[in-house]
Design brief:
Helix content is 40%, strand content 15%. The protein has eleven helices and seven strands.
Amino acid sequence: MNIKSINYLDYGTDKLGTIVLLHGWGQNIEMMDMLGRPFSDKYRIIVLDLPGFGKSPEPDKPSSVSDYAKAVYMLLKSLKVDNPILIGHSFGGRISICYAAKYPTSKVVLLSAPFRPSTQKSSNWRVKIFNFVKKYKCLKGLREYLRKKWGSEDYKNASEINRGTLVKVVNDDLTKYAMTIKCPVLMIYGKEDAAVPITEARELEKLIEDAGLVEYENAHHYAYLERLNQTLAILNNFFE
C-alpha cells in the first residue's frame, strides 16, 4: 500500500500521547472524528481514511488485516508516532488487534470488533448451495455469479479489489494476535449487536491478557455512537 496516498486528519497536542482512530468497513474519517475532538487539548489526534475508503485510494491488490496494520504502522512511523493509543471500530478494531500484537502500542480500544470468522451456523438454503459450489474448482464462474447475486451488501457494494480484501478480512482468524497483546485493552460492545454477538466479545476478552469489557444494554453494532456521551466518559477514564 502507498502510505503517501492515505488521507488523514492530524490535530491536537501530544502532551499525553497520540490517539489513532480507525473506522469500520465502508466508513470514513467522519465516523470516528467525534471520538478524537474531545481529547485534542491533551492528545495528538490522527484519524484515517483507511486505504480503499473515504478519500484514500484502494490498494493495488486485495489486502489482509496484517497488510492494513503494516500500512498504519508505516504511516505513523512517517509521522514520528510511537506507542499510539488505538481506537478501532469493527474492521478498524481487527486492524488494531493485529497492530497491537506486532508493533509498540500504548493502549487499545475495541469498538464492536470481530476477531475470527463467524461460527454462527445458518440454515439458509443459499448458504448451503454456495458451500456446495465452493467445493468444485470447475464451478468457479458459478461461484462468482452467486457471490455477486447473493453476497452481503458490503460485498456487492465493493470494488473488485475491495471484494477480495473483504473475503480475506472476514476469514482471517486473529486469535493468535489477540493472545500476544500486552498493553491494556478496553472493549465496548452492544449486547444486541447482530454482526458481532456479545458472546464473541466475551471470548475475545478471555484471550487478551489485560482486557476489560463494557457491555451496553439495548445497543447494536454502532454502540459507541448510540451511547456517545457514555463512551466519551469511559474513554476519558481509560486514558487517565
